[in-house]
């Protein structure tokens, strides 16, 4: 029995947490029993709520003037896509994102996101308008106004604030659900989720866009896999892929685990369930507007080097234009080779790697060469990182790079990093490279844990726990 019950306590095994605990009484003792009501999961949920609330406060200055100050959103680092997409993509007129109505399409751009985010953005627009007006407003007069003028009208400004509030409350619930799944993935290690709950990356980026909708499905998929539920795992991966593309990469990790443990049937079940869930989620959008549904795919293929990418650094540093086609080919070749490397690593490892480790490595490889790295993309890695390497030192090193990049990208957009004599903002390149270096540091640590399982903090707890009924215990999670 571990101190404090059957749970592995971080003050007993994590040097950083142990050192910090000295200020509040020291590590958990051999007779420590904890609190009956304040269980680890409840503490994790409370910290998540506080962290998310701090993130809402951080956006307060932009909220007060409804994101109308073009420089404040960068100087205070409180930018969010939500208010601008509310008017820019037709949510202000409750337009179905995949409508083929010519008047709507002449007025508004098509949502460039997968269907899961589009559905959520559209649904919360209805809720926001109903909450603001105590009923749905008549849009006849609004439809006659130029789109460019809508953002500044008092009625729409009020709706935008309600839209942000409704989304913040919804995403707060999603963040709490994510924390619950992470805390429950490894039965004896609920405290691992604290690195997510107290993450500065979560506080700073949760309200930039709707990426948390995919994050919760990824966390749920890792939980379902740890409970030996391949069909549910596949459904969650499919729904996640319908919300953001990257959850699809979890199937690669599932494949490696199943090849190692001779569970090919489980992989086929998961893959079939993922495909069925993805089709079911996309079908309403495709049937109502196939051309609009394709915009997400064409938008990403035609996109050139953008914020945060290594391609932008190369392009600006060498003063050379790199075509979207060249970036597409090079990045997919690199990512394909990276995935092959993860496959070989997983198959040659001394013990079956955990799903979180494999999924983290695959998603990290994708982000390293992606054409854009928006600040909120750190959320893609966050739940996988805290499960793959639950050590505070390594989490702090990685997230330090992410926080530096978060500040740098807004100052870059606000032109605060531009040299006085003109030219490119070299510090922004440094911030991108440092972020990538911190990410590669964590990749290296996870690879070492796979090759030398004795370094994996989770391995001992997973082996000691009762094994699932159908899968070897080391493969869980």
TrEMBL record:
The keyword Nucleus does not apply. Coiled coil: none annotated. It is found in: Cell membrane. The chain crosses the membrane at residues 37-57, 160-183, 195-225, 231-255, 267-287, 329-348, 355-373, 426-447. It is a multi-pass membrane protein. Keywords: Cell membrane, Membrane, Transferase, Transmembrane, Transmembrane helix. InterPro entries: GT87, UCP010361. This is Glycosyltransferase 87 family protein. It comes from the Bacteria. Pfam families: GT87. Belongs to the glycosyltransferase 87 family. It comes from Nocardioides oceani. Its main location: membrane.
């Amino acid at each position: 029995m571990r101190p404090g019950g059957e749970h592995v306590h971080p003050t007993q095994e994590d040097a950083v947490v142990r050192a910090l605990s000295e200020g509040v009484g020291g590590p958990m003792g051999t007779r420590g029993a904890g609190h009956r009501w304040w269980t680890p999961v409840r503490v994790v949920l409370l910290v998540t709520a506080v962290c998310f609330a701090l993130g809402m406060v951080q956006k307060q200055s932009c909220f007060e003037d409804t994101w109308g100050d073009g420089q404040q959103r960068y100087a205070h680092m409180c930018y969010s896509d939500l208010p601008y997409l509310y008017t820019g993509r037709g949510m202000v007129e409750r337009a179905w994102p995949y409508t083929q109505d010519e008047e709507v399409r002449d007025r508004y751009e098509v949502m460039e996101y997968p269907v899961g985010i589009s559905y959520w953005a559209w649904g919360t627009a209805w809720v926001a308008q109903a909450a603001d007006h105590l009923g749905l407003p008549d849009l006849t007069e609004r439809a006659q106004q130029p789109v460019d003028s809508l953002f500044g009208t008092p009625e729409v400004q009020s709706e935008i604030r309600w839209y942000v509030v409704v989304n913040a409350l919804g995403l707060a619930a999603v963040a709490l659900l994510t924390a619950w799944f992470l805390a429950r993935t490894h039965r004896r290690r609920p405290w691992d989720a604290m690195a997510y709950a107290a993450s500065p990356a979560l506080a700073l980026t949760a309200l930039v866009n709707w990426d948390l909708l995919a994050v919760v499905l990824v966390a749920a998929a890792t939980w379902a896999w740890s409970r030996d539920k391949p069909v549910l795992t596949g459904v969650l991966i499919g729904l996640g892929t319908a919300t953001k593309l990257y959850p699809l990469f979890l199937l690669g990790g599932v494949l490696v685990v199943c090849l190692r443990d001779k569970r090919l049937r489980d992989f086929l079940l998961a893959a079939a369930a993922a495909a069925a869930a993805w089709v079911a989620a996309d079908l309403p959008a495709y049937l109502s507007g196939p051309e609009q549904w394709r915009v997400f795919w064409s938008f990403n293929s035609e996109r050139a080097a953008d914020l945060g990418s290594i391609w932008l650094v190369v392009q600006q540093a060498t003063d050379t234009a790199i075509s979207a086609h060249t970036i597409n080919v090079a990045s997919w070749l690199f990512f394909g080779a990276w995935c092959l490397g993860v496959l070989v690593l997983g198959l040659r490892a001394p013990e079956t790697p955990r799903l979180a480790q494999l999924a983290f490595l695959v998603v990290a490889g994708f982000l390293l060469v992606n054409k854009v790295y928006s600040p909120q993309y750190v959320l893609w890695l966050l739940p996988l990182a805290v499960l793959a390497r639950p050590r505070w030192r390594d989490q702090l090193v990685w997230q330090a790079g992410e926080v530096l990049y978060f500040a740098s990208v807004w100052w870059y957009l606000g032109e605060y990093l531009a040299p006085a004599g003109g030219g490119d903002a070299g510090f922004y390149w440094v911030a991108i490279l440092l972020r990538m270096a911190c990410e590669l540091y964590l990749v290296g640590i996870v690879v070492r844990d796979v090759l030398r399982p004795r370094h994996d903090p989770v391995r001992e707890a997973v082996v000691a726990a009762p094994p699932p009924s159908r899968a070897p215990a080391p493969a869980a999670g």
